[in-house]
Amino acid sequence: MATVSAPESIVARLAYVKAPTRDQIADNSQVVATVTAVLKDVRERGDAAVREYAKKFDGAELDRFEVSAVDRQRAVDELDVQTRSDTEFAIANVRRFAEAQLSTIQPLEIEPYPGLHLGHRVIPIQRVGAYVPGGRFPLLSAPIMTIVPGKVAGCDEVVACLPPNAHRAMIAGCHLSGADRIFLIGGAQAVAAMAYGTETVPQVHKIMGPGNAFVNEAKRQVFGPVGIDQLAGPSEIFVVADASGDPELIAADLLGQAEHDVRTRVGLITTDRALAEATLAEVERQLNVLATAKVAELSWRDYGEIVVCDDEAAMIAYSDHVAAEHLQVHTKDPHGFGAKLRNYGSLFIGRNASVVYSDKNVGTNHTLPTMGAAKYTGGLWVGSYVKIATHQWLEDKAIRVVAPPAIRQSDSEGLEGHRKAAEIRLRRLG
């Protein structure tokens, strides 16, 4: 297995109190082969193939994939009062934040030269697909994060797919979040159905949402004719902390994320060895009483790390190298320190800002870049559901300005058709 090491400029300034035993996901060649076959089959045979894979992978035999309006409402009615209230609280917060973000994306019109008009429009994507993972637990926030921003953005249609064996509350969550259509299709076959369309599932223009290794690989393979939000690997959380860090809080936050998956990457980056050692001991103590320790302990054993840095500069450099999905700042001046960081999916400033709040209901999106992708992109947001499409129009007087250099450039490039297209317009002006 290949490893991804810290840059040499940082290595000499690091000391591991706990080093990870694994640095990346194992070879997934079998996943690639399986997904390739599923995509080809669904593309060629549509619903029939989807139905067979539902039985093979999910043990579900369905006459129809789409959840009817009656069953959608029944799923909502089955929610207990508190769960429905909490779900609607989270939906309201995500919607409010998405609306605020959308208000910052403005159309543009400029006139750099008299008569030359340039601009762009903000155009909602017509139809998007939201993959809603099933998982070991019913993640009630998952449909909220992928469906609500699409409705706020103004997409004509948001199509949701979730595994046939997903908890009924997940159907309710899709309905309350505003999904236009809901299908009980999971895994790579769901991605294929949305990407290519079937007899019953409409073809979408972009697919959003995280999933397992098969979903991720399917998104990778269909990308091109259909868009995707990002490729999401196992979850990650890192905490950067100085001597003011609280080992009990840090350990609780690390394990809170580690219980997601045995491949979750969790870590502490600090300048204080005493904090590092205290956090190590605290993680072990909390694992002894954690109900989900069976998963969290494997994650901690294989992917957990605690790094002690020589100074603040090394801590910042190593954090930016990791580019964690979730990055918590536990320092004396968390706002000042946070402003120095640049590579993260979402930043949690101060000890009160636990990932759990963002995961569930504060309003920021929990679908975020992993595996170092935060070095070049942010997470899912309302802007993921719109296109910024440019336009231009010219008055006659602008042609006199732009045509001569365009003609000369086309001529130097040997592109006669380009040159003539510019010349004819200039000539008609006399």
TrEMBL record:
Write out the coiled-coil annotation as residue ranges: none
Q: Name a single GO biological process.
A: L-histidine biosynthetic process
Query: Which residue positions are annotated as catalytic?
Result: 325-326
Q: Give me the residues that bind NAD(+), please.
A: 131, 189, 212
| Cofactor dependency | Zn(2+)
Details of cofactor binding: Binds 1 zinc ion per subunit.
- Listed GO CC annotations: cytosol
Alphabetically ordered keywords of this record:
Metal-binding, NAD, Oxidoreductase, Zinc
Residue positions binding Zn(2+): 257, 260, 359, 418
Give GO MF terms, alphabetically.
histidinol dehydrogenase activity; metal ion binding; NAD binding
In terms of Gene3D superfamilies, this protein maps to: 1.20.5.1300, Nitrogenase molybdenum iron protein domain
What residues does substrate bind to? 235, 257, 260, 326, 359, 413, 418
The answer to whether keyword Zinc applies is yes
What the record says about family reads:
Belongs to the histidinol dehydrogenase family.
Which protein is depicted? Answer: Histidinol dehydrogenase
Q: Which organism is it from?
A: Roseiterribacter gracilis
